[in-house]
Design a protein that fits this description.
There is one protein chain. By secondary structure, this protein is an alpha/beta fold. Helix content is 33%, strand content 26%. The strands form six sheets. Strands 1-9-10-5-4-6-7-3 form an eight-stranded mixed beta sheet, sandwiched between helices. Strands 21-22-25-26-27-20-28 form a seven-stranded antiparallel beta sheet. The radius of gyration is 24 Å and the shape is globular. 51% of the residues are buried. The model has no long low-confidence stretch (mean pLDDT 94).
Length: 562
Amino acid sequence: MQFSSVKVPTKPYDGQKPGTSGLRKSVSVFKQENYTENFIQCILTALGERKNGCCLVVGGDGRYFSKEAVDIIIRICAGNGVKKLIIGQNGIMSTPAVSCVIRKYQTEGAIILTASHNPGGPEGDFGIKFNTANGGPAPDSVTSEIYSLTQKISEYCHCPDLTVDITQTKTQEFIVEGHPFTIEVVDSVADYLSLMKEIFDFDSVRSFLAGSGGSTPFKIRLDSMHGVTGPYVERIFCDELGTSKDSVVNTKPLEDFGGHHPDPNLTYAADLVKTMKGGEYGLGAAFDGDGDRNMILGHQAFFVTPSDSLAVIAANLDSIPYFKNKGVKGYARSMPTAGAVDRVAKQTGKEFFEVPTGWKYFGNLMDAGRISLCGEESFGTGSDHIREKDGVWAALAWLSILAEKGKSLEELLIDHWAKFGRNFFTRYDYENCDSEPSNQMMENLENLIKDSSFIGKHFSHGEKTYKVAQADNFEYTDPIDGSVAKKQGIRIIFEDGSRIVFRLSGTGSSGATIRMYIDSYEADPSKHRLGAQEMLKPLVEVALQISQLQELTGRQEPTVIT
């Protein structure tokens, strides 16, 4: 059957500027007339001539409004000369799996429907981001071009009569304006599962979990938080690795994530924390809405900070066949992330990079063969197997290390701290603050660090005193393409190596989220088992004193402490 392409007049919307992970707004914003259509058209227009006859991947976390958005994408892609779409069944595909599929089939990129860890449902958030042909988030040059186009768009092209069934895995062929247009609906898990089997020794992990050699079976608890990873953990951990069905919970993707916040941290994954405290399980993990973030817990809810998780994986990469065969290059972390992996890189003689927040900054380093492993404090860990952070991969990495080393998770951490020292780290999130006082706070901090007399100042709380050694607004020059990212976060670094970092988050859909990061290194093994909040309280109070956060915002307590 032949279909026609139609041009529809439209007008620009303000504020369609993609952030670090695409465009995120409330569902009600995306449901405005032509709002979603405008943004999709601008993504395709930004591809230029490459959109004609290209192949794109489409997938997402299944949140509310995803089905409608997939229909819009199909019709606009058909109307713009795209040749083929590879779509996850029912529009479902984790962000790591999308990256995998882009790279495996060498597509031009992907349109991903997710607002990651933001809440879903009719009153929640929706998001759209574009990943490029390397499998990673679009770089600043691409997102800037998309934003520029959204400010002047006057029409979009679509195929209004085209209807496609995405509920069954099959290939469907159409003719649009005399050109072939193919929709291939694929099993959302299959390609990703194949990649995981290439990276990890499934037989070894399976034996470890089963308790081979007469040892006690190692029990795990994985919480998908009603996000996209549910089908993945069922297939990988239950079907392939033989864990019991009760080892995975909340595995049905729901449009509103069961009414919960799909963010894998100690606050929003409280049910997992409570279960782990019971002592039945040796490893627990929670994953966010689109599957790229993870939280790792040990026996009795022993919490592994994302910074420590990155460092321990880095120090034990020889436990994973992929790295044994391919070799290990360098490591990288986002600037706010605690410096634990820095010391692993130094002791192992590997190259190390500190980059701005946003996974796209790791992509250039991976493509150039400079790093093998990277991570960020916001529960993101990943390697060069794809160009996104990968929650399920991180859980498999930890199980591979535990199987190889024959130690508990807590024992591994204690041994790691004894060798490398411990970075005590916490993050305070103040969500949905009023924008004006939040911006005022950042402006005040900017003026403060520009004052030369700030360097050398002393700040005290209780018996602790800190002397300012360095202060700046972090700036990064990409060593691969020479691009410069400015004003990436206020850093105050003290003489003992302790750090305070302030950022306004770019992942919220409204208001402002202030993130305050506290990082302090401790070499003394006698102090490694002390609580992070106890160790960091003096520096937290100093940070609040310097920033005047409470006075300016009126917020006396953070929304989330990590």
